[in-house]
Amino acid sequence: MPGYSEPVWAEEHIRKSSGVPLESGETVDLAVVGAGILGLATAFHAARNGLKVQVIDAGRIGDGASGLNGGQVIPGLKYDPEWLLQHFGRERGEVLINFASQTADAVFDLIRKEKLDVAYNRNGWIQACHTEAALKTASSRFAQWKALGADVEMLDAQTIERLIGTSNYHGGFLDRRAGVIQPLAYTMELSRIAAAAGARITENMKCRKLEKRQDRWLLTMENGVEIGARSVLVATNAYTGNLVPGLAQTLVPLHSFQIATEPLPEHVARDILPQGHAVSDSRRILVYYRRTPDRRLILGGRGPLSRPKHIDDWSHLERAMARLFPSLSDVEISRRWYGRVAMTPDHLPHLHEPEKGLLAFVGCQGRGVGLMTAMSRRLADYILTGDQAALPFPITPIKPISFHFLRNIGVAATIGWYRMLDAIEQ
């Protein structure tokens, strides 16, 4: 497709295909299906602690959302601390608040401790508010996290205009715990350290069947190769198929589209995100954006539910860029790409263990880089010890969404309605 390609950072990191063959009859302590951030980081922690680990991915490492996302590392969950306490009760709520507060730390600490070759910037994330009502909500979020000691700040209209370079917002919420990374490099580096710890990683190998055989799980690949495992982690998230009955039907997969400009002239770029903040706005159909080290602006948001067929499928992002930054109206777009994200009906991550030794964790709600990194250590600890105290989220049953086969119609209608409301509020 003319104008469509891999993400702009794909050319920064050469991907070498993993040549580790999958041997039929092999038995491992842990089989991980899905070589994204969650799968690779869990494999790393498990292998580092002495488990025999096999990671399997149907495609190349980095081809899914872990390599295609916008690279924003945002702590917290969709909901604020007070809601978590009310919904889960004090004991579980406090565990979740503590966990959520440290998800960004998990990423940046891992990069530093393991000396990962990953470009990053930890200057914070801004939630930019396009209405007074959104600003009021952000003020409540600020007060709750500030009371817990988080490094957060409320921004007035003048300050947010200086930090972003646009007068489109009434103010906003700055979380200095957050930052940005180069996501493909991060995913590839997780693969490297997992392999160095002893995990075997096999790409381009689809697992088509999973069944329990006495005290172990039997995984059967498309080519007929079979391996056994004491435990299995299904880490496929938005790319979940029918390997675990009903799991895919608990999720609403959406497409996140992104565009990247050519490197901006210095005189144009100096007023746009001059301190390198990541930004998401408060619209119902939000847009998110950041700068790269070579002065490109990357902007993303929800796109069509079907696969893109023409560069016009990214035109809504170009209009958003022109609205926010009129000086970029005529700038050339060098890259366009998209990936799949998974939402849950309650906007919370879901942890499932339908049978002993079979785990699945799904539903990032836009915070996948930090969430999946932090959760990986907890999952590895649980697999090692069997102690549920290691898990911040409760294990819940798989509950497919009613009339899931009609999801695209419902989601398309909802997106259309939200876009109209957002347009009215501009």
From TrEMBL:
Key words of the record: Oxidoreductase
Domain FAD dependent oxidoreductase, first and last residues per copy: 29-381
SUPFAM superfamilies: FAD/NAD(P)-binding domain (SSF51905)
Database matches in InterPro entries: FAD-dep_OxRdtase, FAD/NAD-bd_sf
Domain of life: Bacteria
An example Gene Ontology CC term for this record: cytoplasm
Protein name per UniProt: FAD-binding oxidoreductase
Annotated PANTHER family: FAD DEPENDENT OXIDOREDUCTASE DOMAIN-CONTAINING PROTEIN (PTHR13847:SF281), SARCOSINE DEHYDROGENASE-RELATED (PTHR13847)
Gene3D superfamilies, alphabetized: D-Amino Acid Oxidase, subunit A, domain 2 (3.30.9.10), FAD/NAD(P)-binding domain (3.50.50.60)
Organism: Rhizobium setariae
A single MF term (Gene Ontology): oxidoreductase activity
